[in-house]
């Protein structure tokens, strides 16, 4: 196996990037949640490709893709409340990206840690949009195989960028045709939880450096100083028990930087919301509950103003 030195001094080993291992498996969890959301009568977001990813991966071929396949339905913490959370997040970020390209004028979109994101295929893009998908080679290759098997056609120019975010993703993005002189829209959905604090700071600083005025960024963070305070949360315990994903072992537990504050200091305008704000706005989704693993989740939306 080939070894490479990442930009933050993290050793990256090629080949250890399967969608069915480690953090990659969480992409399949989100795909299953999007599949369940797609088939709800009161759906918040539709992703007709999501269930095909789940069914194509042996590690999760028996996971539900419809809520009626879950014996306790919406009472199930994982496939009910947690899946609905991912459906809500998908809808909110869909709206943000489309609003940014339609009203802000940006025509290049960068998905950081794209996973099994299918926005290039699902959304109504204006002419001239390019969607760059950055993720590990194995994850993107799995996605390509499934979508090619469905003869799926993207609705924008889609450019996969197979590189680990711990390696030189900036150079890989430039080689793929990204134009740093043009406004861009950046999306880091469910990504920063897994990065060390220094890597998060580097990523935010890099996005700022590569973003011209008129650019936009959305990302998700957690505010908890000690994630283990919620180790008995039903969301975490049910995810570990039912599908073997221990999220607390995957999340980086270092003290998180104030990325939203850093962007404000760099001249960006930002707004910070809880997921529950959007539950109330849309009339469906998770609401606060005791011992809630979602209590510290925040969705940050940032814009780099034009002069």
Question: Which features characterize this protein?
Answer:
alpha/beta, 38% helix, 9 strands, Rossmann fold, 307 residues
What's the alpha carbon Rg, rounded to whole Å?
18 Å
CATH architectural grouping: 3-Layer(aba) Sandwich
Number of helices: 11
Give the overall pLDDT as a whole number: 92
Trace the largest sheet across and list its strands.
5-4-3-6-7-9-8
Summing up helix and strand content along with how strands pair, one would put the structural category as alpha/beta
Proportion of helical residues: 25-40%
The share of residues in extended strands comes to 15-25%
Number of strands: 9
Order of SSEs: EEHHHEHEHEHEHEHHHEHE
**Quick one: overall form?**
globular
What report would you give on this structure?
- With 307 residues, the chain is an alpha/beta fold.
- The protein has a single domain (3-303), classed as 3-Layer(aba) Sandwich (Rossmann fold).
- It is 38% helix and 15% strand.
- The protein has helices at residues 23-38, 50-56, 77-104, 119-122, 137-149, 169-175, 197-210, 234-243, 247-250, 259-265, 275-282; strands spanning 3-5, 11-13, 108-112, 130-135, 157-162, 184-188, 216-222, 269-273, 297-303.
- Helix 1 crosses helix 2, helix 1 (23-38) packs across helix 3 and helix 3 (77-104) crosses helix 8 (234-243).
- The longest helix has 28 residues, at 77-104.
């Amino acid at each position: 196996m080939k070894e490479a030195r990442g930009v933050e001094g993290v050793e990256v080993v090629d080949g250890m990037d399967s969608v069915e291992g480690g953090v990659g498996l969480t992409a399949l969890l989100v795909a299953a949640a999007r599949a369940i959301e797609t088939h709800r009568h009161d759906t918040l977001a539709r992703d007709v490709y999501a269930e095909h990813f789940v069914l194509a991966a042996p590690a999760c071929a028996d996971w539900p893709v419809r809520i009626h396949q879950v014996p306790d339905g919406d009472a199930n913490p994982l496939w009910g409340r947690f899946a609905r959370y991912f459906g809500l997040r998908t809808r909110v970020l869909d709206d943000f990206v489309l609003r940014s390209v339609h009203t802000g004028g940006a025509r290049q979109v960068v998905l950081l840690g794209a996973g099994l994101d299918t926005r290039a295929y699902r959304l109504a893009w204006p002419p001239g949009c390019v969607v760059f998908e950055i993720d590990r080679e194995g994850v993107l290759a799995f996605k390509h195989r499934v979508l090619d098997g469905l003869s799926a056609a993207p609705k924008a120019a889609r450019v996969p960028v197979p590189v680990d975010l711990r390696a030189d993703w900036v150079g890989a993005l430039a080689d793929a045709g990204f134009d740093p002189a043009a406004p861009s829209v950046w999306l880091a959905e469910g990504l920063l939880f897994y990065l060390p604090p220094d890597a998060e700071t580097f990523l935010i600083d890099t996005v700022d450096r590569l973003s011209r005025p008129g650019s936009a960024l959305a990302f998700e963070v957690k505010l908890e100083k000690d994630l283990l305070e919620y180790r008995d949360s039903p969301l975490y315990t049910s995810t570990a028990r039912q599908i073997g994903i221990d999220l607390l072992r995957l999340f980086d537990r270092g003290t998180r930087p104030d990325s939203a504050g850093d962007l404000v200091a760099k001249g960006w305008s930002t707004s910070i919301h809880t997921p529950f704000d959007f539950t109330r706005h849309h009339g469906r989704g998770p609401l606060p509950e005791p011992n809630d693993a979602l209590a510290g989740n925040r969705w940050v939306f940032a814009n780099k103003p034009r002069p």
